[in-house]
Amino acid sequence: MSSALAISHGSSRRYRGWVLPISVVALWWLASHMGWSQSGLLVSPEKVAATAWDQIASGKFWRAISASLTRNLSGFFIGTTLGLVLGCLLGLSHTFERLVGPSFNTFKQISLFAWIPLISVWFGLGDVAKVVFLSLAALVPVVVNTCDGLRNVPPNLLEVARVYRFSRWQTIVGVMLPAALPSIFTGLYLALVYSWLATIGAEYLLVSGEGIGNTLIDGSEHFMMDLVLFGMVVIGLVGWSLNALARIFERRMQRLYGIDPR
Amino acid sequence: MAEHKIVARDLSMEFQSLDETGQTERVPVLEGFDLQVREGEFLSILGPSGCGKSTFMNILAGLAHKTGGELLVDGQPLQGINRNQGVVFQGYALLPWRTVLDNIAVGLEIRGVGKAQRLETAREYLELVGLNGFASRYPHELSGGMRQRVAIARSLAYNPDVLLMDEPFAALDAQTRETLQSELLRIWGTHKKTIVFITHSLDEAIFLSDRVAVMTQRPGRIKEIFDIDLARPRLPELRNTQAFIHYRQRAWEALRDEVTDITREPAAAATHQNWQSIATLGGYRIGV
Ligand SMILES: Nc1ncnc2c1ncn2[C@@H]1O[C@H](COP(=O)(O)OP(=O)(O)O)[C@@H](O)[C@H]1O
Ligand SMILES: [Mg+2]
């Protein structure tokens, strides 16, 4: 009996998350159809759906989303690659840590968006500037978590490595990196989330070219709220998908390491 | 001399630590530590917590450096990590991303033994510790007792002459601990090794050992060594015999002052009637 209760409880919880969005859409539909607001800034759900269809059918949506995703992934790969290298150097070499550590710690305190003026002066407003900005967004969490993971390898595992006479290289590859893997993965996960946020930020602040962020700007400049809302939904969905993808990998990794998934 | 596997003479070890005022302070952990371990014997070192047992073990394993005295293994001064010694750590220290079998094989892998050969050897030791069928599990899927079995198999697979064990069963529940004690004796009976076994349990030391060495509190040295003349094979019922209880009392007498000082209990209170409650205060499990 108690298990039956738990199941019905579980399934009702499953759908609970939908209550708020469905109510909001219903309210929105009512508001735009009952003439509660005369403002042209409140568009109906159907108008947004029609705009979405138009964007998709005309190919504008695909051009925007592929420009944004390409940018996002290039920045993510460049940033995480550099981040892994830098994080490993900081985590493994005391000399490097002493030379570069303090500078990096100062560097990471600078708010990401404070880089925009400098980047736009050096790299303009084009794709290069955007990718540089995105790489920066992805770099910081990867460096921090990689370095942390390597520093916090459980001392007893390092003793095992010494007792069984692992060489320095074998210790790094066979003990330190695998032990740091969950932490490194947290860094990659954050990099994926940050770089998508930064993609939209970059398109919004370094205005030029195509992208979902530009769709948003277009909409707001021409008071086309349907276009703005469509853009927001797409940004949310992409963010959610990236998050879900990263989560699947994270779960796998945690299961392998015996960490209880949160 | 040749019959002595390990000889420690006037061994000392101190740590440098910073006190509140930022001055370096010398913390002597071992001082005047003398011990001779015979080839093939099962020797337990019994001492209050913090007396330097793990420190001695780490020096013997080559993981820490003595600051004075002499330490000979097979008549030679100890230099670095000795590959004839296997270490079983206080925590199990298994590599969480390796399967049970790959954990057991890790020492052989680093030594350069080929894959087929090392997995075969690993399987042999897996069977020895009674974990058939768990070869491809991961450590987190095992209970504490099973993990410790894996750790023991890993040390044995390396085929050392000496097995150093630092409170290997301390974290296990009473039943599992007793099962593993018997298992360890069985394994020791078939694979003759010299075992140096560190514990803070009187019963464990007496049940397992040929000799028990009792340490003083920090700075630690060996206070007393006595032989345990109990016949082998030793069965669990042995713990209830008069002879066993006699040894337990004897060991407790050697240990009592070291423990009561630490807990700041008046030593005079440790009369025969209430020694059990004092023993509990000192963190000692007496009786089962
Ligand atoms: N790295 C260290 N620096 C300073 N003191 C230490 C260090 N390691 C251990 N000690 C001290 O040495 C003493 C003995 O430690 P240990 O050998 O671990 O004791 P035991 O294993 O007998 O419980 C303890 O009092 C501990 O505080
Ligand atoms: Mg200890």
From TrEMBL, chain A:
<dbReference type="InterPro" id="IPR000515">
    <property type="entry name" value="MetI-like"/>
</dbReference>
<feature type="transmembrane region" description="Helical">
    <location>
        <begin position="171"/>
        <end position="197"/>
    </location>
</feature>
<keyword id="KW-1133">Transmembrane helix</keyword>
<comment type="similarity">
    <text>Belongs to the binding-protein-dependent transport system permease family.</text>
</comment>
<dbReference type="GO" id="GO:0005886">
    <property type="term" value="C:plasma membrane"/>
</dbReference>
<dbReference type="GO" id="GO:0055085">
    <property type="term" value="P:transmembrane transport"/>
</dbReference>
<feature type="domain" description="ABC transmembrane type-1">
    <location>
        <begin position="65"/>
        <end position="246"/>
    </location>
</feature>
<keyword id="KW-0813">Transport</keyword>
<protein>
    <submittedName>
        <fullName>ABC transporter permease</fullName>
    </submittedName>
</protein>
<dbReference type="InterPro" id="IPR035906">
    <property type="entry name" value="MetI-like_sf"/>
</dbReference>
<keyword id="KW-0812">Transmembrane</keyword>
<keyword id="KW-1003">Cell membrane</keyword>
<feature type="transmembrane region" description="Helical">
    <location>
        <begin position="73"/>
        <end position="92"/>
    </location>
</feature>
<feature type="transmembrane region" description="Helical">
    <location>
        <begin position="18"/>
        <end position="36"/>
    </location>
</feature>
<keyword id="KW-0472">Membrane</keyword>
<feature type="transmembrane region" description="Helical">
    <location>
        <begin position="227"/>
        <end position="246"/>
    </location>
</feature>
<dbReference type="Pfam" id="PF00528">
    <property type="entry name" value="BPD_transp_1"/>
</dbReference>
Automatic annotation (TrEMBL), chain B:
<feature type="domain" description="ABC transporter">
    <location>
        <begin position="13"/>
        <end position="238"/>
    </location>
</feature>
<dbReference type="GO" id="GO:0005524">
    <property type="term" value="F:ATP binding"/>
</dbReference>
<dbReference type="InterPro" id="IPR003593">
    <property type="entry name" value="AAA+_ATPase"/>
</dbReference>
<protein>
    <submittedName>
        <fullName>ABC transporter ATP-binding protein</fullName>
    </submittedName>
</protein>
<dbReference type="InterPro" id="IPR027417">
    <property type="entry name" value="P-loop_NTPase"/>
</dbReference>
<dbReference type="InterPro" id="IPR050166">
    <property type="entry name" value="ABC_transporter_ATP-bind"/>
</dbReference>
<dbReference type="GO" id="GO:0016887">
    <property type="term" value="F:ATP hydrolysis activity"/>
</dbReference>
<keyword id="KW-0547">Nucleotide-binding</keyword>
<dbReference type="InterPro" id="IPR017871">
    <property type="entry name" value="ABC_transporter-like_CS"/>
</dbReference>
<keyword id="KW-0813">Transport</keyword>
<keyword id="KW-0067">ATP-binding</keyword>
<comment type="similarity">
    <text>Belongs to the ABC transporter superfamily.</text>
</comment>
<dbReference type="InterPro" id="IPR003439">
    <property type="entry name" value="ABC_transporter-like_ATP-bd"/>
</dbReference>
<dbReference type="Pfam" id="PF00005">
    <property type="entry name" value="ABC_tran"/>
</dbReference>
